[in-house]
Amino acid sequence: MDESAGFAARYGSLVFLVAVGVIGLSVAHVLDRYREAEGAPEASSVPSTSAAVLPAAPPPPPPPLPGRARWLAVGGGADPVSNQVSIEQNLALAAEVLGPEGILLYAGGAGRSPVHELGPPPSEDLHRDLGAFFDPRDGRGARYRPTRLVPHGPAEVELFQRHLDEQLAGEGPPLLLVMVAHGEVGKTPADNFVPLWGGDGVTVKELAETLDRVESPRPLRAVVTTCFSGGFAELAFAGADPQAGPAAQDRCGLFAATWDREASGCDPNPDRRQQESYALHFFHALRHQDRSGKPLTSGLDLDGDGAISLLEAHTRVRIASRAFSVPTTTAERWLAEAAPATGPQKALPLPEERAVIAALGAKLDIDDEVAAEARQTTLTGRLEASDTRLMLAERDEEASFRALRIALLERWPVLDDPYHPAYAETLDRESAAIEAFLADSAEAEERAEVLDRIDGLRREVDALEVELAAVERLNRAYDTVARAERLHHRGGEAFATYQRLLACERWVPDLKP
User: Fold this and answer.
1) Which pLDDT score is estimated for 229?
2) Nearest to 276 by CA among 298, 295, 257, 253
């Protein structure tokens, strides 16, 4: 049912038109402010402040909240160094694609969200080099700027919970929940969680319990782009507990990675051409576009209805992504729990899985399931061998570090303590000799050789992980078809639940301009 028609029928056309006007302006305000600051196409690099200290400026007022949101997006890092620019860009893309009548919660909110961006190559500086050697720290070379988003509020657990409760209460059209952030793995999938601003997080189990306790809740569709996001596939079950059976509510989700694997996408490089994330593919696909925003005329609308469903966009990610991630869904999770492991099959039209099999089979030059399994076995063995070589090289690096460290301290004992009273004097007086030692000593040359070897092995491992992920997606599509057809043959309530989850995932969001 069209949301605007239902609202107008209930409250009257005049009130409806005024409300939509205000809501449209609020989200337009968010996006206009972002585009104005961005000032460049999505694929280009974005200018940034070079200082590590944010300029003092009053935060812009948050836009007005919609009374009945169509979507709720929450994300950002838990702290500045984990608040990479790609997360900000992906949330801006989600808001633009999903249109008005949404709520955006981001990091610390307007004026309190330092965005971590990749800066220019650092200039030569001996003090910095020694810091990186003796006391390496993530984010020391980062630069930060204020966020260009104008969110409705910070991505804090309490505020997120309040908005979620308010938007779920009562009947209405489906609420699309979007989480673009980081993820952490737990002991079980239900323990996985998304840390929000300040470090407090939302676990899979907590989200499931929130959904379970709301009386007559709105239907929910979730899109979670974080590492280990497949843990949220437990939303298929009441209380995120497979022993409790299927959830009574109409809810489902699509996820960037399985519950026990990381996902690509947290990138401080603002150049969209250099990024690779689930969100980048997914939200463009909803608009019939490739990852760069160019129109796609085929390969997306698998059921021919003229619109792109959540599952069709998810399918596009599985086919087109060059990431090391392996996406999944609630329907896949239900099959893993409910489908027979063996037995007869009954044919079932699954256009999304057939599309993955056809496209990845052609791309990888794999003709059938047997060949796909063999390729996965081969790649897994190669990756394990490369990982072993990398581990050995990293041990060599530790030994080379110790050798160079003690050689430096034998000559300049205070170099590992920048707070020592003699540190600055030693650096001023001996800088040329220290730089020469770091460049030309036998210990430094040995360390440089080991670091070069590690760089090459890491590139090798990265390439193997990307190829293996594509093969795993192909094998999962074969496995999904087999499980679904075995469950189809058995029939019953378990198959009906699978059909409900598929219908939920095939929901088409109303992308209002």
Assistant:
1) 98
2) 257
Q: What's the rounded Cα separation, in Å, for the pair 248 and 90?
A: 32
Beta-strand runs (E) in 147-204: 175-181, 193-195, 201-203
Structural tokens at position 63 = 């836009």
Q: What is the Cα–Cα distance from 429 to 408, expressed in whole angstroms?
A: 15
> pLDDT digit string (tens) for 239-293?
999 999 999 999 999 999 999 999 998 999 999 999 999 999 999 999 999 999 9
pLDDT for 22: 35
**Cα–Cα distance, 26 to 282 (Å, whole number):** 24
pLDDT tens sequence across 199-221: 999 999 999 999 998 877 899 99
Query: Is the four-CA dihedral 464, 467, 473, 475 of positive or negative sign?
Result: negative
Residue 176's nearest CA partner among 511, 513, 501 is 511
Q: What is the DSSP letter of 292?
A: T
Residue bearing tokens 């190559």: 121
Angstrom distance (rounded) from CA 258 to CA 404: 41
